Amino acid sequence: MHSLRLLIVPTMAWISCSPLFLAVGGSSSDYDQKSTMGQLPPAIIEQIKAVLKEKAPKFETVVDESGFGVTFSDNCDSYLVHWADKGGQWQEKSRAEMLPNEYGWQLSLDWRAEISGRASGGYPITAGTVQDNYSMSYRNCYQLTDNRGYVELSWNFGRGVKPSILATVRAELATVGKEVSADRVSGWETKSEKLRELLTAVLKKHHSEAKLGAEGEGLACEFRTTKFDIHPVDDTGIVKRRSQRETGPQGDGFIIRLSPLELAVLRQPRPMYGVSYGPYWKHYFAIYDENDLPFRVDILYGERTDKKPLKEFTETLDEHFNEPERF
């Protein structure tokens, strides 16, 4: 049973209110029967479903009764939200909506005959970027070949979701149409090599025995780590009863993680930063909001950890990228 939570979302709700067909696990014969009505390319939808099933086997598929849209979702909860109507008028009463939790996401694809006349005469200027409200959201549109209209992509996701899911879907849509709004994306491989070079130089001076290698799409460096039993905290601040094993720094160790965001985060003119305090270590993070490809730095360190190499590394990053808040 999904929990019901109170939430104020400072954006207009975008979830369709039309009657829907629901299928679990990404299989829906209703979509195949109605897809030609909305001009959504059936082959590309099936390919996206196959890709999503590899990353989230239990995701749900919801199909608009008209056949003009389809929504995929995973790890969503019911929230009470304050919403605005199509005229921008905020409503007094809140309503329940299914929205992604920290590790959840919603992906909607809708066919449009045209996109002119929207958002003050044109497609929203925020398209092609990520906005940060309650959860992260992304929108873009793809012009289909042979003047067959547009496919609008809406991606709503929690902060714990890997950006590779969106990148994969965008790559699939690019095979059937052209992106309307340019995306702030560049090659992560080139930037990661530069970051590896900068971090390696600092490690050689202070901790040559530290282990540096790939971790998912990013880089990770570990020095004097061990296993801990951690009780995770969900996005509402509730500590879960069941603990889980995690790798963390010892009292004099550290872990440095560098990961791509792939899309610019429109939150504030300077990078996000902060320090959190856990039972075993401190966690420093900063987002370097580069125009071409922002990336995130996470540093976990203990009470007795030597801060000198950590400060030297962040100061080195400041020389090459935007300057975040220091320790």
Describe the structure in brief.
With 327 residues, the protein is an alpha+beta fold. The protein has helices at residues 29-38, 42-55, 164-173, 188-206, 307-320, and strands spanning 4-6, 20-24, 60-64, 69-81, 95-112, 130-132, 136-144, 150-157, 177-179, 211-215, 218-230, 244-260, 265-266, 273-277, 282-288, 295-301. The strands form 2 sheets. Strands 1, 2, 3, 4, 5, 6, 7, 8, 9 and 13 form a 10-stranded mixed beta sheet that branches. The chain has a 6-stranded antiparallel beta sheet with strand order 10-11-12-16-15-14.
Give me the secondary-structure topology.
Layout (H helix, E strand, L loop, with lengths): L3 E3 L13 E5 L4 H10 L3 H14 L4 E5 L4 E13 L13 E18 L17 E3 L3 E9 L5 E8 L6 H10 L3 E3 L8 H19 L4 E5 L2 E13 L13 E17 L4 E2 L6 E5 L4 E7 L6 E7 L5 H14 L7
Parallel strand pairs: 1-4, 6-13
Antiparallel strand pairs: 2-3, 3-4, 4-5, 5-8, 6-7, 7-8, 7-9, 10-11, 11-12, 12-16, 14-15, 15-16
